[in-house]
Amino acid sequence: MRALLALFRDIALCRRGPEDLPVSRGLLATLLVTYFVGNFVQALLSGWTLRGVAPLVIVEIVMLLVWVWVLLAFFGRRPRFMQTMSAVLGIALLLTLLDIALLALDHLVGVPGALSDGWSVIRLFVMVLLIGRVLMLAVEGSMFTGFAFTMMMILSIIYVGQLFRPGIG
User: Fold this and answer.
1) How far, in Å, CA of 83 to CA of 54, rounded?
2) Of 5, 20, 32, 76, which one has the fewest beta carbons inside 10 Å?
3) Where are the beta strands (DSSP E) in 15-87?
4) What is the distance between the alpha carbons of residues 42 and 65, in angstroms, rounded to a whole number?
């Protein structure tokens, strides 16, 4: 597990790429479940209910899977799906763990949003850079292609997520 986290850290630090991950359904399934659980922990620390956040997390994961598959299919790189999706989820999971740590610190300090509110803007920028780079490497395209597609994914997930927002308690 430690080696896997180190690999995701190296991908986030641009030392390695998605091609360094194994082609493994087990790894992808484990990352999906871990990301799902991490989002629930993050939601609880943010004051949301599990019932309210479940549709959001499911929609986000499904949309990520579909968007990455569509991008790879468009560029004729479908065989790279498991590695690319694992890298995307690994980076998203690292960012979610940072979110959880900052939310926990907010609760310890007793000032909700003291640290996590400022981080949310930085997080979006970091996510676009890191996931954009992964997608760029996966399709062997330009950084612009990776960044543009990442922004399209994020904005569409936010938009669709807003449809479910009234259910958050």
Assistant:
1) 26
2) 76
3) none
4) 21
Residue type, 16: R
Question: How do the residues of the chain divide into helix, strand and coil, expressed in percent and rounded to 5?
Answer: 85, 0, 15
State the virtual CA torsion across 101, 98, 37, 167 in degrees, nearest 10.
Answer: 90
Give the integer Cα–Cα distance in Å for 32 and 97: 14
Q: Low-confidence residues of the chain, pLDDT below 70?
A: 111-116, 164-169
Give per-residue pLDDT as tens, 154-166.
999 888 878 866 5
Structure confidence at residue 46 (pLDDT) = 80
**What is residue 65's DSSP assignment?**
H
Token pair of 166, please? 């009234």
Dist CA 36 CA 84 (whole Å) = 18
Q: How far apart are alpha carbons 27 and 89 in whole angstroms?
A: 10
User: What single letter denotes the amino acid at residue 121?
Assistant: V
pTM over 0.90: no
